Amino acid sequence: MKYADLHVHTFYSDSTFSPEEVVMCAKDKALSAIAICDHDSVDGIGPCKELGAKMDLEVVPSIEMTAEVPDAEIHLLGYFIDWQAGWLRDKLREIQISRIERIHKIVEKLKGMGINLEAEDVFKIAGKGTVGRLHVAQAIIKTGKVKNFREIFGKYLGFLKPAYVSYVKFSPEEAIGTILKAGGVPVLAHPGVMKKDELIPELISYGLKGIEVYHTDHREEARMRYEEIARKNNLLMTGGSDCHGLGKGRILLGSVRVPYELVEKLKEESEKIKAGR
Ligand code: AMP
Ligand code: ZN
Ligand code: FE
Ligand code: FE
């Protein structure tokens, strides 16, 4: 059997892994394919594809984008996107700039809560990656003030927590529209983390094609619920580890895997989307 992990980050967003480390790790886990799904960035795709071609590992060009509604943040995966499209890169550059501006605001809020960080500390950790909350969390850990990620997100950085700052200009319709325009297959990431199942019909009306049923943060109960929702709505059931290298403590790559046939289905679906543009 051939397997794929369809949710992997690199250091072009908030993983600690370089493309080399991602590809070596995927080979080590005997995967046949991985999807590179960096937050608001396509920069890791080229290097991973190049290395993957040498190592006989298929790399699915993908992205993870964030949309917001007043009471939830929604992560959307886009599979087989036209990652080299100039308009997409321009759009992502804009988002990356608002992510940088957001860090300054988060750091100010944290100062008001007794956590003294400089934006520069966060940018140093992010390196060349799109900067985000995981980098802020890592900088907070370094201060020694708070011990673990759960506490940091629970008290400070989680959605609508006191140091949360939005950078997103996207409604779900715009995020799904962007993925479709790029010829990508839009899939709802880790709905069990979002905990807003009532939004799914609306997302489907905008063109959602799949649900990430299998994910590190989904227990058996969530898996069963999303399998049923996917089946009832005729959506693809995808899955991936959401590996951030050592960014979340433990290397997750390959710990969630789906049969390789799903890669072929996503590819077919993306070809239909591209033909219909
Ligand atoms: P950002 O791209 O800045 O919105 O940050 C997204 C990153 O923060 C992802 O890696 C998420 O896994 C992580 N994250 C968001 N919320 C939480 C949470 N409640 N607990 C742990 N990690 C989280
Ligand atoms: Zn992330
Ligand atoms: Fe996510
Ligand atoms: Fe992710």
Walkthrough of the structure:
The protein is an alpha/beta fold and 277 residues long. It has helices at residues 19-28, 45-55, 86-112, 119-126, 133-143, 149-157, 172-181, 191-194, 200-206, 220-233, 261-275; strands at residues 3-8, 33-36, 58-69, 72-79, 185-188, 210-215, 236-240, 258-259. Strands 7-6-5-4-3-2-1-8 form an eight-stranded mixed β-sheet. The model has no long low-confidence stretch (mean pLDDT 97). The structure holds adenosine monophosphate, zinc ion and fe (iii) ion (FE) (2 copies). Residues 64, 75, 189-190 line the site of one fe (iii) ion.
Write the layout of secondary structure elements.
Elements: E1 3-8, H1 19-28, E2 33-36, H2 45-55, E3 58-69, E4 72-79, H3 86-112, H4 119-126, H5 133-143, H6 149-157, H7 172-181, E5 185-188, H8 191-194, H9 200-206, E6 210-215, H10 220-233, E7 236-240, E8 258-259, H11 261-275
Parallel strand pairs: 1-2, 2-3, 5-6, 6-7
Antiparallel strand pairs: 1-8, 3-4, 4-5
Helix pairs in contact: 1-2, 4-5, 5-6
The structure holds adenosine monophosphate, zinc ion (ZN) and fe (iii) ion (FE) (2 copies).
